[in-house]
Amino acid sequence: MSTTKSFLTPEEEQAVVEAIQQAEKNTSGEIRVHLEKNTTIAPMERAIAVFNQLEMYKTKDANGVLIYIATEDHKFAICGDKGINDVVPEDFWESTKEIMRNDFKKGNYKQGLIDGILEAGNVLKKYFPYCAEDDDELSNEISKG
Ligand code: CA
Ligand code: CA
Question: Residue 126 Cα, ligand 1 centroid: separation in angstroms?
Fold first, then answer.
């Protein structure tokens, strides 16, 4: 692996955005990615704060999902809105996190994000299937702190 200054190259970022578009063809849920270097608080707490900053609660079915990564701290968290938490089992994000962990361990960040996003779309579709009237309620662009 080459050591690049940024976590993802512009091409890799584009591939991640395309994965979000792809995942959102399976589900009405809205997936976003936020990257920042460090967090001083627990990644899940920080993910919830970023979720609110990005106003990700502004979805009709409260089914926004934030994949949060503190890149230099090697920490990440997945934060779903209450519409999701109300209906899914406790370990709902475990398969997604496991996939991401495995790729991240190998230093394969782009692939970890893409696989994680696609898996998130896959598990979400059971509870929040895509429907023809579905809107792209939240931007697919990567947010950076
Ligand atoms: Ca949608
Ligand atoms: Ca979207």
Answer: 14
CA distance 144 to 26: 25
- Range list of H helices, the chain: 10-23, 43-53, 82-85, 94-105, 109-124
Ligand 2 (ion): residues with CB under 5 Å are 30, 136, 138, 140
Measured in angstroms, how far is the CA atom of residue 106 from the centroid of ligand 2?
Answer: 28
Task: Profile the chain (145 residues) by mean pLDDT over runs of 10 residues.
Answer: 68 98 97 97 98 98 98 96 96 96 94 97 96 93 95
Which pTM value belongs to this model? 0.94
